[in-house]
Amino acid sequence: DRLAAGLTGAEARLYELIGAVPLAVDRLLSSNAQNATLNRLVSRGLVHVAGFTPSDAAHVLGKQANWDPIAARLGAELFARKRDGRGQNIAASPEAISERVLVTLTRWSAEYILETAFAEDGLDGASTVAHALVQRAVDAHPGIARLSVALDRPVIGLGASAPLHYAGLPPLIGNDCVVPRDTDVANALGAVVGQVRVSAEARVSQPMEGLFRLASGETVRDFLDEATAIAAAEADVRAIVAERARDAGTDSAEIDVATEFRVSTVEAQRMFIEAHVVAVASGRPRIAV
Question: 33-62 burial by CB neighbour count: b if 16+ within 10 A, else e?
């Protein structure tokens, strides 16, 4: 597989284990260190990771009907079989785990909104929203001392899923959540009139001393010195990301390139291990006439 050329030993071994048949992550990985290895394979586009999503939960509960409800239910059944600290299934049924996922999504949305509001008020947003008093207020926990927290303005919900996921926000944030009539296209329109942002990446490895292998796009090339390989990688990702930016709708993209090196020191000598080169292009979309 030429797309897999240039992998490190650990990456190649894990890639070979994965194969073409879907595998459970907990059966594939034998150590926490392999999570980083898997993430590198995913970033190169060699591996895809699938999981249960809130949209799947909505399909299980009959609140959404865009995709395959049977596949969504199978995902819910697998998710519900996960074990808790006592060795028990985390949910009794696909419906139960799906309801929990949707409730949790709404709760997390409320907490992130409050965290942002606290930060705007000059507080440490994360620690403030995590405080026991704020948590009791959001929960509307009954007690002799009643606590409440509320935004001073309503929240605007955008996106096709806003009517579903934000319906339960008002009692958590202490204000209304307004969902516009055309919310399903509002988010997409905002993206179009906002910024085009695309990226490309390349990796330079050293499979043997003195040989620097560049994997960029669908090409693999070898160089005899590090500097030349890095320069070629940066040139490649610039060209790739410029083309992607044009295809995405902008003719005036600004390109930034960042290179992250992994090196070690052996007997006081620098040893190159790997370099990850990422180019990001961003710009305003062209105006159609």
Answer: ebeebbebbeebebbeeeebebbbbbbbbe
Q: Rounded CA gap, 172 and 137, in Å?
A: 8
Nearest CA to 278 out of 216, 201, 213, 203 is that of 201
Hey, is 202 helix, strand or coil?
strand
Helix (H, G, I), strand (E, B) or coil at 169: coil
Token pair for 142: 């009954």
Which has the closest alpha carbon to 57: 92, 5, 13, 97? 97
Question: Closest Cα to residue 282, out of 260, 254, 263, 257?
Answer: 254
Q: Which amino acid is located at 218 in the chain?
A: E
Q: Choose among 52, 72, 54: nearest CA to 165.
A: 54
Read off the pTM.
0.59
Distance CA 213, CA 207 (A): 7
10-residue mean pLDDT series, the chain (289 residues): 70 86 86 84 83 94 92 94 90 96 95 94 93 94 91 90 90 93 69 71 91 88 94 93 83 88 87 92 70
For the chain, how big is the Rg over CA atoms in Å?
24
d(CA 19, CA 21): 6
Q: Which helix (H) or strand (E) holds 280?
A: strand 269-283
